[in-house]
Amino acid sequence: MGRMEALYDITVELDRLLEQPMESKDREKLIEQTEALISKRELLLQEVKEPYTDEEREIGRKLIPLEQNIQQKVKLLFMNLKIEMRSVKKQKSSNQKYINPYKNASNFDGTFLDKKK
User: Fold this and answer.
1) Which of 20, 70, 106, 115 is the most exposed place for a label (fewest CB within 10 A)?
2) Per-residue pLDDT tens for 15-73?
3) What is the pTM of this model?
4) Which of 32, 37, 36 is nearest to 15 (CA)?
5) What contacts 24+ positions apart, CB below 8 Å, involve 52-59?
C-alpha cells in the first residue's frame, strides 16, 4: 500500500470515528482513539513528499474535503466539551452554595461600630 493510500485510509477511519454520537460514558475512549489516529496520520503526512504520481494527486483531491469535514467535527467536539465543562463547574458551585449558603456572608451584618471614644 502506498503512502497516500495509507493516509487516505486513516483519514476515512478518523472521519467515521467522529461521525459516531458522543455520549459522556464513551467520550474518553473516543478522544483517545481520535488522538491515536491523528498521531498516525501526522507520521504519514511527514512521509508524503513530492514528486506525486497522478494516482497520489487524485487521492490528495479526495483528502481535502475529508480534512475540512474532520476539522469541523473536531471543532464541534471541542466546543461541546467546553460547554459541558462550564455546566459542570456551575453545577458544582451551585451545590456548594446549597450545602453552605452562608459561607460568603459578611460578618458585619447587623452590627454597629461605634467610632466615638
Assistant:
1) 115
2) 999 998 877 788 889 889 999 999 999 999 898 888 888 898 999 999 999 999 999 99
3) 0.72
4) 37
5) 52/4, 55/2, 55/4, 56/2, 56/3, 56/4, 59/4, 59/5, 59/7, 59/8
